[in-house]
Design goal:
Blueprint: H1 12-18, E1 28-35, E2 41-43, E3 51-53, H2 58-68, E4 72-78, H3 95-107, E5 112-117, E6 131-132, E7 135-136, H4 138-155, E8 159-162, H5 169-179, E9 188-193, H6 200-206, H7 226-238, E10 242-246, H8 252-261, E11 266-270, H9 272-283, H10 289-303, E12 307-310, H11 313-322
Parallel strand pairs: 1-3, 1-4, 1-12, 4-5, 5-8, 9-10, 10-11, 11-12
Antiparallel strand pairs: 2-3, 6-7
The structure holds ligand PBG.
Ligand PBG binds at residues 116, 118, 120, 128, 163, 199, 202-203, 271-272.
Catalytic activity: 2 5-aminolevulinate = porphobilinogen + 2 H2O + H(+)
InterPro entries: ALAD, ALAD_AS, Aldolase_TIM
Protein name: Delta-aminolevulinic acid dehydratase
Amino acid sequence: MINRPRRLRANPLIRGMVRETRVSADSLIYPIFFEEGTDIKAEISAMEGQYRYSPDRAKEVIDQCLQHGVNKVLLFGIPKEKDEKGSQAYAENGVVQQAVRAIKEEYGDQIYVITDVCMCEYTSHGHCGILCGHDVDNDETLKYLAATAVSHAAAGADMVAPSDMMDGRIAAIRAGLDENSFKNVPIMSYAVKYASKFYGPFREAAGSAPSFGDRKTYQMDFHNIKEGIKEAIIDEEEGADILMVKPALSYLDVIRELSYETNLPIATYSVSGEYAMIKNAGKAGLVDEYGIMCETAVSMYRAGADIIMTYYAMEIADAIKRGDIG
Ligand code: PBG
């Protein structure tokens, strides 16, 4: 026998030497929900182990992240009042703006703060933009998105991440940031975002399910991959700095394909439904939660992702430290 692949699997040292995928906590981003109010830390029932915090309790969760070696976070906001035009999304004292300021005052450059730019958590109808009848008005929405991104940058956000899927939003946000002296604030585009049932637990957490219809006129049809590459290339041309594929697990082929098509860093978001499935299957004793978490995280990197957003960020960082993956 000439070929004996098992020679290179004989022990941990040689397996470590020939390992093809290296992972690092530097590339992990932890999503956090901030709810308007004070003294809140409320567990999200659909996402055991995840909480909604009020901005005054940001320190608890940020300290926890830093202890685990995770120093990038992605912030979402849940306002007290929602209205037709989502005005709390771009309010100077909106909940995300408050949270960013609180974190930046306390930690400065110790933590990298990214904000989700969207309207669905802020609109009374739960859609990701301004309505015209029952349709989301693409071009009208752009100025609100740009204003939201600018208000996040003004509060001190290091990076903005638009997740709305309107056409032309990267160009609109880039122009807004540049005009307001934020030309060095990068944009991580949720470029390839599918209309997905995997967002279910998030919508419960953020109270952002659309009150009528669905998001299929702006988020992508999950049958399509070429369309995803098209979306990503458009966003790159409009000035995106990082491209995201979302969700992660059912879209590893899209991550791989995109890695051939772009020289930008690729991020992927392992979303709430992915977390909830692993968590609950583990709790039910059906699978080994820790092992599945490790294996799925590595699969995202192996597919070609450079950056991963995940509710398991701290546990994955620990797994890397322990040498279980990495
Ligand atoms: C907002 C947004 C959503 C998610 C991230 N940003 C929900 C949606 O599009 O309905 C989902 C994240 C998750 O499921 O963890 N547009």
